[in-house]
Amino acid sequence: MPFTSASPCRCRRCSGYALRPGFAPAALLLFLAGTGIVHHLGQDRHLLQVAPEHLRSRALALRTTGLMFFQGLGFAAAGAAGEFFRISIVVPAAALLGLAAVAVLRPSRQGPVSAASTL
Question: Which residues contact 29 (CB under 8 A, 6 or more apart)?
């Protein structure tokens, strides 16, 4: 399971902004995009399975810190781009960048990682 904050479903839904929707469709697109965050729910359990017992709390803290930092960085970058470009360009571009990141960072399908193989 990849440790990324972008999911393909969420990014595809945000690409609907290229059609310049009105308020209600835009709110619906944002709601649907927000549902893409549910993939984070299972990551803590997976991380606890692969992290050595004496490093589990540090691993969870590092994961959470990194997630918050990169989400904030993404929001800041989108806000800066929004100062110069229309939202109908910025949001789909962010969605495409998210899809590209998922494609590049997606792990190979070699099976689940065991705790013994990470030591």
Answer: 13, 14, 16, 17, 21
